[in-house]
Amino acid sequence: MSEPVLRVRSETWSGGETRSARRVARPLTKFLAQKTSSGFVLLGATALALILVNVGFSEQYHEFWETNLSIDIGSKHLIGMSLHGWVNDALMALFFFVVGMEIKTELVAGDLANPQVAALPVIGALGGMVVPAVIYLAINLGGVTGGWGVPMATDIAFAVGVMAMLGPRIPQSLKLFLLTLAIVDDIGAIVVIAVFYTTSISAMWLALAVGLVAAILVLRKLNVWYIPIYAVIGLVVWFATHESGVHATIAGVGLGLLTPARPLIGARRGEAIQDILAGDTVDPVGFRDMNFKLREQVPVTGRLIALFSPWTSFLVIPLFALANAGVKLNGESLSGAMSSRVAWGVILGLVVGKPLGIWSFCMIGKRFGLVSLPPGLKSMHLAGVGAVAGIGFTMALFISGLAFEDAANSEAAVMGILAASVVAAIVGWLILLRSGDGETDTMNYIESLSDTSESGNSNGPKTVPQTEPVGTK
Q: CB-based contacts of 216: which residues, under 8 Å, 6+ apart?
């Protein structure tokens, strides 16, 4: 007689064996877990915005996003903005909060924590910001020069998506180079927004925001770890920053940079469990203590990024695209964009300036011994990733919304961003496709080191092949 089969039914929707769990829940969970999935959602939101505006719903589209939404307490008016403003100033602050935490993590425990490793992408990112801005200014000299910050930006979601399409042809070191470059690029964009796209300043509100930031620092020194307190203070910081005239998203970045990126408790997980379970029985207080110790062994940035990143990737950024990418693509608007120096400044800045700046600055740094290329990374790889970095999109759209008050220039900039992003994606993909098998190059390099070591004198120095400088990675 066979033993009965014990079937354990999960209480979660995706954990069971129902048809919806197998065919919907688990595939959906797997899709959301992929880094490139957000790029597809973003692309879909952009396409939807363009379709709505170009198939007869342009008036309804703009009227919807200009709908005013205000918050009042009794007869006291607290804040009011259009739906477009709530997306760009409020929801995007959450996105920039996540960006700030990612920057903090990189500075504390990532590639940016090692100056030697960070040198190459930092120099490349600097070139990728300076050269596009110079190209835009050169084209718009004597005209609308305020949009020079637009072609400086890189959209990491689309850029990573393009590289993911090439799979193992791309060396891992190039993917790390792009991710680190994008982080530095974000830092540059944040500085540009804070310094150059801030208009009038209210000293009183700005002082309140700075005072609350100081209060957060004091609470951290006092070991106050209760996150809801920081959440309430963070909301007030955002409101004060918004009222001060500084763009409210800067508050999100600042709060992200203040978030602890190291574990608050350094004890090993096993010791924490053993301490609680040492006795014969474990009471509820003991379980609560164990839960606290386990939770605080993970940095706050790690926990909050895991919490908010799906929301920003699959809701905030697609909503931003839906609210900002709706432009007319008829003959009149296309003709106007083709004759607009703003559009051409953006296009040439992203398509030409980005790869030229990243590649040339890296090569100059290498020539003067400031940086070296990691194993498997070639000059052609840098040109390809530079072209891919020309996909400006999200950050470029965001900065264009701050840079242009005139509707015609704003529309021309948006059309330039869309056209440049498509061209940059295609050109970058083609360059990387022809750049060779990076994974094979890296393996050949490692094998050459092994062969040299085995054939060399064990008591003497080992010779290193000089086909490519040895990186620090």
A: 230, 233, 237, 255, 258
Residue with the two structure tokens 């015609």: 408
Give CA–CA dist 45/318, Å, rounded: 5
Question: Cα torsion for 249, 394, 84, 237, to the nearest 10°?
Answer: -10
* Residue carrying the six token digits 């740094």: 365
CA Rg value for the chain: 25
Q: Report the alpha-carbon distance of residue 88 to residue 103 in Å, rounded.
A: 21
Asked if residues 212 and 237 have their Cβ atoms less than 8 Å apart, the reply is yes
Nearest CA to 353 among 314, 386, 313, 317?
386
Distance CA 387, CA 372 (A): 20
Distance (Å, rounded) from C-alpha 43 to C-alpha 226?
38
Cα angle 465, 467, 473; round to 5 = 80
> Hey, what amino acid is at 257?
L
CA 345 to chain centre: 24
Helix (H, G, I), strand (E, B) or coil at 269: helix
Residue-wise pLDDT tens digits, 224-267: 888 899 999 999 999 999 999 888 889 999 999 999 988 877 65
What structural domains does the chain harbor? 35-198+247-262+299-449 (1.20.1530.10)
Distance from CA of residue 274 to its chain's centroid? Answer: 39
